[in-house]
Design brief:
The chain folds into 2 domains: 121 residues, Rossmann fold (3-Layer(aba) Sandwich), CATH 3.40.50; 107 residues, Orthogonal Bundle (Arc Repressor Mutant, subunit A). The protein has 12 helices and 5 strands. Strand 3, helix 3 and strand 4 form a beta-alpha-beta unit. Helix 3 packs parallel to helix 4. It starts with a strand and ends with a helix. Keywords: DNA-binding, Phosphoprotein, Transcription, Transcription regulation. InterPro entries: CheY-like_superfamily, Homeodomain-like_sf, HTH_AraC, HTH_AraC-typ_CS, Sig_transdc_resp-reg_receiver, Tscrpt_reg_AraC-type_HTH.
């Protein structure tokens, strides 16, 4: 599921990502700093859910919500604000906002909201076979994962799993595992600045630092060290 996150505060965007990702690892999260960036992203992606800050420079969250609803009639909107304002709440209801959260965000409240929209919606397009494989990857990505041992765990022929996985997910099993590990590394590099890059590489399942660094740079265009420095 493609999920839009819009807030003019970079720390708030990062907080939203770090709270949502562990609960819904299959969601594709797209951050935007304002309404213009959000609408630009909407030209390229079809969004099913959006978390919007109400007060932003330029187009407000409520105006953006109206624009998104016109573009994606079935999109669910979660509005976030620093103020408990009845007028905002009334306008939110008029626009068709599904949920209303106040800052500072309380993780347990956000989790409840996310849970409402999760309900395995990520997995609707996948077969039970592929869902089982994905769950193993998300739970054991830090271990020595390969297609034969995952196939063995779910009692299926490795060649058959490989074909079904590629057909449904749109990438090979090994490619998905590598991409998922890199995504987890990105989060850890920003959240654990006291940890060495070697420790983080090991924590996400890379047993060689050189291979981790080479793979990371190939996918993101910067080394793990550069990525961490840019996120300061």
């Amino acid at each position: 599921m493609n999920v839009l996150l819009v807030d003019d505060e970079p720390m708030m965007l990062e907080q939203l990502k770090m709270m949502i990702e562990p609960q819904c690892p299959l969601w594709n999260l797209y951050p935007a700093a304002d309404g213009s960036q959000a609408m630009h992203l909407s030209e390229e992606k079809n969004f099913q859910l959006a978390f919007l800050d109400i007060e932003m420079p330029g187009r407000s969250g409520l105006e953006l919500a109206e624009d998104l609803k016109k573009k994606f009639p079935n999109i669910e909107i979660v509005m976030i604000t620093a103020h408990q304002d009845f007028e905002y709440a009334k306008q939110s209801i008029k626009v068709g906002v599904a949920e209303y959260l106040t800052k500072p965000l309380i993780e347990s409240e956000l989790r409840e909201v996310v849970k409402r929209f999760a309900n395995d919606v990520d997995f609707m397009e996948y077969s039970q076979l592929v869902i089982s494989a994905l769950h193993i990857v998300h739970e054991e990505y830090d271990e020595a994962l390969n297609l034969p041992n995952v196939a063995n765990k779910i009692h299926v022929n490795p060649s058959y799993l490989s074909r079904r996985f590629s057909d449904e997910v749109g990438q090979s099993f090994s490619e998905y595992v590598t991409n998922y590990r890199v995504d987890m590394a990105k989060t850890l590099l920003k959240a654990n600045k006291d940890k060495s890059i070697s420790d983080i590489a090991e924590q996400v399942g890379f047993n060689r630092l050189h291979y981790f660094s080479t793979t990371f740079k190939k996918k993101l265009g910067v080394s793990p060290k550069e990525y961490r420095e840019r996120s300061d």
